[in-house]
Write a structure and sequence with these properties.
It is a single chain. The protein has 141 residues and is of the alpha+beta class. It has a single domain (10-137), classed as Glycoprotein, Type 4 Pilin (2-Layer Sandwich), CATH 3.30.700. The chain contains one helix and four strands. The chain has one helix spanning 10-61, and strands at 86-92, 96-103, 116-122, 128-133. Strands 1-2-3-4 form a four-stranded antiparallel beta sheet, with helices on one face.
Length: 141
């Protein structure tokens, strides 16, 4: 008695592997862009929290803070100077403040490439994110 062989031929398996490879080459860059967009959003969100803490600090002490940890984190929980992706820094006095988030590493914002998100505010004005500049937004549609 002859048995009928079942299974896939080598050609069919190679075609499936090639299709999976093509799909992976299309998906991986899109995933990287999504990760970078999320990290940029994280910086914008943290700077939003920092500007709210600056407003609370000014309401209490009539001056803005130059430090985040040890001063502003008394007003808002979760403020950090380094979250693994961004370095945060502030400068402030009695009249105004400026805070920045500088990218530490990554595809679109390696350290030293100028990827910086800036927030600023003055007495009596609304504080906002004022700029996103550098390679952190390059080629992200």
């Amino acid at each position: 008695m002859l048995r009928k062989k079942s299974g896939f031929t080598i050609v069919e398996l190679l075609i499936v592997v090639i299709i999976i490879g093509v799909l992976a080459t299309l998906a991986i860059p899109q995933f990287s862009k999504a990760v970078e967009k999320a990290k940029l959003s994280k910086a914008v969100n943290m700077l939003g929290l920092i500007t709210k803490a600056q407003a609370m600090k000014y309401a209490e002490d009539d001056t803005y803070s130059a430090t985040i940890v040890g001063d502003l984190d008394d007003f808002v929980d979760g403020l950090v100077e380094d979250d693994g992706d961004w370095d945060y820094a502030c400068a402030g006095d009695a009249d105004d403040f400026s805070c920045t988030a500088s990218r530490q590493d990554g595809t679109y914002g390696a350290a030293g490439t100028g990827c910086v998100v800036t927030a600023a505010g003055t007495v009596g004005a609304t504080t906002t994110i004022t700029s996103v500049a550098g390679d952190c937004v390059k080629d992200i549609p």
